[in-house]
Design goal:
six-stranded antiparallel β-barrel; 3 helices; alpha+beta; 8 strands; 154 residues; Pnp Oxidase, Chain A; 43% strand
Length: 154
């Protein structure tokens, strides 16, 4: 856990830079989904970024796969509780063979896992960012929304 900061809140532009850095270098993200009747489910999944979308893979018939397919939405979290980035997105489900080979190869190289080779049936889940928030301490709660309706605010 990061130590509390005493330098005051980061400017919003710096928060976005920090998010961009995290999206470029982190490999895993917490994925929160819910069933159509509201049962929550939380798992860590590896991801690859392509612009304002994140590519995930998970078993098609598993709880996360079923939830993402049924609701078409996800909430993702990067970072620690004292330096968090919350992402809400719209989910598009793609068959595992739907992507160009190079795109799947890029995912496999980045994450160290190739879902195309699994005996368990996997799907791709492309999450388009719709809302992004970032904060470290209570002094950053104000202005934490950095993307709204798919548009960066900073």
């Amino acid at each position: 856990m990061a130590a509390p900061t005493s330098a005051g809140p980061r400017p919003r532009a710096v928060r976005r830079q920090d998010i961009e850095q995290r999206l470029a270098h982190d490999v895993d993200v917490w994925v929160s989904s819910a069933s159509p009747d509201g049962v929550p489910y939380l798992v860590p999944l590896s991801f690859d970024r392509d612009g304002d979308t994140l590519l995930l893979a998970t078993p098609t018939a598993g709880p996360t796969g079923r939830n993402l397919a049924a609701t078409g939405t996800a909430r993702l979290a990067l970072g620690h509780t004292r330096d968090v980035c919350m992402i809400e997105g719209v989910v598009e489900v793609l068959p595992i063979d739907a992507l160009p080979r190079e795109r799947g190869d890029r995912f496999a190289a980045r994450t160290g896992f190739d879902p195309r080779e699994s005996a368990t049936p996997y799907s791709w889940f492309r999450v388009t960012l719709r809302r992004v928030q970032a904060w470290r301490e209570a002094d950053e709660l104000s202005g934490r929304e950095l993307m709204r309706d798919g548009r960066w605010l900073v």
